Amino acid sequence: MPGAKRRLTFMEQKKIYDCFEKDFTIGNVRIGGDYGEIPTVLIGSIFYMNHRIVKDPQTGSFDEEKAGALIKTCNTLSEQMGVKYMLDVIGNTPEALIRYITFLKGITDAPILLNATLPEVRIAALQELNRRGMLDGIVYNSINGFSTSEELDVLARLPIQASVIQAYNPGSKKADGPYKVLTGKGGKEGFLDKAARAGMTKIMVDIPALDLSNMGTIPYAARVIKEELGIPVGTAPSNATYASPWLRNKEIISTEQFRAVDASVNSYLAANGCNFLFIGPIDGCRWVMPSVAAVNAFHVYGKRSGGICPLTKEHPMYKVL
């Protein structure tokens, strides 16, 4: 058909995907690789909707003392456990995002995921951070099925190479569903092609966590992506645990029991190959980080006979065991 776009061959497509790094460093955090060699990275949310430390979500006014205390706890636990963390910073306006990120960069070296519901808010914040020379350690959250050509074009012009990709496939709940939207099966443009167009080389594939039952299928979806593409893959178990009717029923589940289950769910996914996990509110690092550290330590210790060793000197194996 005249004017029709020629479909890429498998080798042409593979060459495009070769631009994505299999493991990489953002700020002070290394992520990716074969499971066990690099610890699972935990991503905590801060300044999210109804977060009590936020005074005005439009201007970004917040309680700096309480925010600083939350970060201090994460820093201390990270040093003690050998598990690195990132911060998912959520803002309603560019002004709020800039205010949050400026504060955080003054107290932590942790990478920051720039997050907002509206793409125009994310882009405006990125452009201002670029003007201020503050894009180092910033991860764009996210490229997804709603990303427009205009958004991708702006990203391509900015000096940012790291992004989350939300691999949501509404047409399939099978293990290869996320992989298909990444690669564009069925004649559609894949999300990886979008990321390449945006100039991204350091990508983190986020497999959607829909509910608790979904936790059992995510490891299989992650395995497909890791085996075929080798890029970092993870999920957001907090979407399932914090929304679960069972876990939210305080008549049968106490706060202590919720935290035990939440830590177990995160650890299960860490044990099954996820390179990173969105743990929900940043306060969750208090119970999730020790659990994930133990699992990471056990796993790589058991792999030593196969020649697998930690790739970082700060690995939990050296802290826990």
List keywords for this structure.
321 residues; alpha/beta; TIM Barrel; eight-stranded parallel barrel; 13 helices; 12 strands; 17% strand
Descriptive overview:
The N and C termini lie far apart (64 Å). It is globular, with a radius of gyration of 19 Å. The protein has helices at residues 10-17, 64-81, 94-105, 119-131, 149-157, 177-183, 191-197, 218-228, 238-241, 245-248, 255-271, 285-302, 316-320; strands at 23-26, 29-32, 41-46, 54-56, 61-62, 85-90, 112-115, 138-143, 162-166, 202-207, 233-235, 276-281. By secondary structure, it is of the alpha/beta class. 41% of the residues lie in helices and 17% in strands. Helix 2 runs parallel beside helix 12, helix 3 packs across helix 4 (119-131) and helix 11 packs parallel to helix 12 (285-302). Strands 3-6-7-8-9-10-11-12 form an 8-stranded parallel barrel, surrounded by 7 helices. The chain has a two-stranded antiparallel ribbon with strand order 1-2. The protein has a two-stranded antiparallel sheet with strand order 4-5. The protein has a single domain, classed as Dihydropteroate synthase-like (TIM Barrel, Alpha-Beta Barrel), CATH 3.20.20.20.
Question: In terms of topology, how is this protein built?
Answer:
Elements: H1 10-17, E1 23-26, E2 29-32, E3 41-46, E4 54-56, E5 61-62, H2 64-81, E6 85-90, H3 94-105, E7 112-115, H4 119-131, E8 138-143, H5 149-157, E9 162-166, H6 177-183, H7 191-197, E10 202-207, H8 218-228, E11 233-235, H9 238-241, H10 245-248, H11 255-271, E12 276-281, H12 285-302, H13 316-320
Parallel strand pairs: 3-6, 3-12, 6-7, 7-8, 8-9, 9-10, 10-11, 11-12
Antiparallel strand pairs: 1-2, 4-5
Helix pairs in contact: 2-12, 3-4, 11-12
